[in-house]
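Morning, I've got a small favour to ask if you have a moment. I owe you a coffee for this, so here goes:
>
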Amino acid sequence: CTVMKPPPPLQIESHATSDPAAALTIAQQRSFDHLGTPLSDVTFVVIDLETTGTSPDSCAITEIGAVRYRGGERVATFQTLINPGSPIPPFITVLTGITEAMVYPAPPIGEVIPALLEFIGGAVLVGHNLRFDTSFIDAALVADGRERLPNRRVDTLGLARRLLRDEVPDMKLGTLARHLRVEETPNHRALADAQATAEVLHSLLERAATLGVLGLDDLIELPKIRAHPSASKLKLTSQLPRQPGVYIFRNRKNEVLYVGKATNLRSRVRSYFGGDTRSKVPQLLKELERIDHIVCSDPLEAEIHELRLIRRHDPQYNRVGKGWRRYAYLKLTVTERFARLVVVAEATPDGSVYLGPFRSRALATEIKEAIESSVPLRRCTQRISRNAVISPDTPCSPAQLGVAACPCRAETSEEDYRAIVERAVLALRADHSALLEPIEARMVSFADQERFEEATHQRDRLAALSKALGRVRSVEWLRASGNLRFATQDGVREFEGGHLVTSSTPSLADFDPRLERASVQVLPLGQPPAREEIDELLVVARWLENELRAGRVRLLNATGCVSTPCSGPLPAYQPIEREDGDREALQNSCS
């Protein structure tokens, strides 16, 4: 069909409303950047199309019907026939009742697009099998040189599958309308079907509210969790705020099952019922009976609370944050006659020099070997008493190879060995270059000889040692600074010996930040951090480093020394990609 007569005006009906903001003009549409918008404040445009077929590539629109709703009240309607520019198949005419004579005087889609876009504005689009309708509209927009529809979308088909799958034989609009007893009967005409879809939407929203779906973000996510066996427990999330904080899953005995942090508590907890594919989640939700939460001022406070709660309750389903009991230290036994490096589980005030704690004995051993490759400390394991006579008859393997100044070879006096130990102590506490430069020299030498596997091994050893020394530097600076107060964009942050002084008002009756802080064993200065406190210190150090680098915080007060034990950044040793795509074996860059 082609248009031979002037097109009739579009039928746009405006309905009285007590809300002047719901007028037809685009400039008055609400923005939905904040996904937590209550459903009562959301403007929906329910849309339905009639077409000449099922493919937007080869078929065309014959009718558009749309209804705008806000707060459950109909605000305006939009209806027009469209001249498809092609014959209407007979079975489409039988199905819809739309004939070629009816669309003959109607405007083509290109003339309707501006008014349709104005009607939709920034509203949330709703439809039954909405993808079908929007595919035709997007095709028309692209053909007219415009962008596709950017609006957020809600499909009543997906909602019905989630909420009514056990109650109806199929998900057709007519079946749902009869089952839900809506007033409007769908009849394959665009406006009637759009109005029926709107009534179906309202009935589904009532059912969704029993699952705690009260905001736009919940509604959009609901179809994704349609098959979850624990979906009935979604109502436990209804009181969670959309703020940073910590959530606590408990079982019927009130035992803590899991502790987690989130920048948006409601969104994160609800994701367990849909997108979380971890193997333990189904059993966790099966045991779940109660969800507690603590609202925090920012993600830093949430992460600190999470660490403290995990340490206190040792939840069954938490994996990260529970391994602190397995942390290990590296100890230089300077009080021994011939000091050596050993890996130990605890740090005691025995006058030794400690490094760590590290997350595992394996990592502590790796750092030990890296240090021993730079400083020729003895590697034999026996204790040598003050009065023992050292015999050179059975030197250990490192002594025979000449890589360690072990006394069992009787070539190093106690005075010379003491000088080696003093050099090692200085390198651990201040002059880290004495540890890094020898390994770096070997790395470069191996690379020059094209012994790349050995060079890569030295690079990895360097990276591990440099990272460990950097951690020590950051933590020592925090602990030595005493009480720190920083001005941030959101207020003032205070730290005591590197530990955050929390400012949130917990919503848990049994949660006391002072109790959580007191449960951490804090070793005095001169001793390394305790295993219980190292994770929190590293979180604070990382946050401060990022905030100071970005210029988002300013130091207000410090009761201790705020200068770092040694100046200048430590190098990081990372592989890089060359222009030809091959990985460089070596790279020394400052972090």
About this structure: Residues 452-480 form the longest helix (29 residues).
